[in-house]
Specification:
Blueprint (H helix, E strand, L loop, with lengths): L9 E3 L4 E7 L3 E4 L2 E13 L4 E13 L2 E14 L4 E7 L3 E3 L4 E7 L8
Parallel strand pairs: 1-3, 2-4, 3-4, 4-5, 5-6, 6-7, 6-8, 7-9
Length: 114
């Protein structure tokens, strides 16, 4: 369920590298490199992006390379280009054909307070 490009309020563009604590409101797209702690509502890690972080968000969509930990209150989706090595905690997990996932997944029955 990818959002159109204009739907994103914040974006870390290709060629950009950020590190530290990142807090977003609204839809956010990471196309470059990021590491640290990321919190927000709707987070998309684009194909070609490299992220190593602890993520806490409502919805997370991953198409790039991700290592770390994801806690999503509603949903995590790994698109076919995703290469993920992490721990996921979410009530809804979608793995598209072609995605690679190495790690652990916890799926609580109710939404989690991330």
């Amino acid at each position: 369920m990818a959002l159109p490009e204009e739907a994103f309020e914040s974006k870390i563009g290709k060629g950009t590298k950020v590190s530290g604590k990142l807090n977003f409101s609204g839809a956010t797209r990471i196309e470059g490199e990021a590491e640290g702690e990321i919190t927000g509502e709707e987070l998309t890690i684009a194909n070609g992006a490299v992220v190593s972080a602890r993520i806490s968000a409502t919805r997370v969509t991953i198409a790039g390379v991700f290592t770390g930990e994801v806690t999503a209150r509603e949903r995590v989706e790994l698109l076919s280009t995703a290469r993920v090595q992490c721990t996921i905690s979410t009530p809804s997990l979608v793995l598209n054909e072609g995605a690679t996932f190495d790690g652990d997944c916890r799926m609580p029955r109710t939404r989690i307070a991330a």
